[in-house]
Write a structure and sequence with these properties.
124 residues, four-stranded antiparallel sheet, 11 strands
């Protein structure tokens, strides 16, 4: 099990940008980002692997969000550009130490380690 520490987030106007960080206390195989808006279920945003498969994104963020990693810092980033009010939510990172089948990367129940969550608010 690893500890995930998130930073970043905040409030921005529509069209603006924010960057979220997720630092792991140990090595992980992959990190995913999820978000949860009030009254809604937690939904998949993006998936990153240190080695192997390419990044995956939810259709709603494709072309606007970019996930990347810094091996030296053991940190995964979520760069969010052209933000929309619909992106308002609490964002969570989640990690796994072993590979997950592709069909399972979008399911929160497949991740054991979670960050504390960070609020992102986009105003129109």
């Amino acid at each position: 099990q690893v500890q995930l520490t998130q930073s970043g987030g905040g409030s921005v106007q529509a069209g603006g940008s924010l960057r979220l960080s997720c630092r792991a206390s140990g090595r992980t195989f992959s990190t995913a980002w999820f978000r949860q808006a009030p009254g809604k279920e937690r939904e998949f945003v993006a998936h990153f692997e240190w080695r192997g498969r390419p990044n995956y994104y939810a259709d709603s963020v494709k072309g606007r969000f970019t996930v990347s990693g810094d091996n030296a810092q053991n940190t995964v980033f979520l760069q969010m550009d052209r933000l929309e009010p619909e992106d308002t939510a609490v964002y969570y990172c989640a990690a796994r130490q072993v590979r997950l089948v592709l069909s399972g990367i979008r399911s929160p129940e497949n991740y054991n380690d979670w960050g504390q969550g960070t609020q992102v608010t986009v105003s129109s």
